[in-house]
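Lab notebook page, bench 4
Experiment: in silico fold of construct C2
Operator: M.H.
Input chain length: 130 residues
Purpose: comparison with the prior construct
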Amino acid sequence: MSHSELTGHWDGPWYRVDGDGFSALFLLDPDEDPALVDGVDVVVELADGTRWTGTLFTLASVQRRMAEDAETGESLDGRYFWRADSLIVRDPGVGDMTRVLAGLIDFGDLTRVLRRVDAEDLDDAPDAAR
């Protein structure tokens, strides 16, 4: 399956995309459109059974969050944005985000970008991700 043909489906609260040698589980809100999501937590399970987690954001999502922080006074009135294990992507949507993850896997960079997690850290993940 080419990376451009990746499709997903709901697996409990997770939106799962199975690729060549990996599965990506996105934790979407039930009313969120997978094609439009611009900030989401993800768990990636590689063929070797290791699991990696992080949060993917678009630049628009970061700008929106910084504007919100400016109003609430958080993050020095929105002067910075920081999240552990985060990755900024250009385009919204699970499809585009999965293609980025697949590219990171292809180039051997995923394990440097995301954080490795153990099965017990994923209590709410489907069995295949544990």
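Observations: The radius of gyration is 15 Å. The helical segments are 59-72, 74-78, 94-106, 110-113.
Next step: discuss at group meeting.
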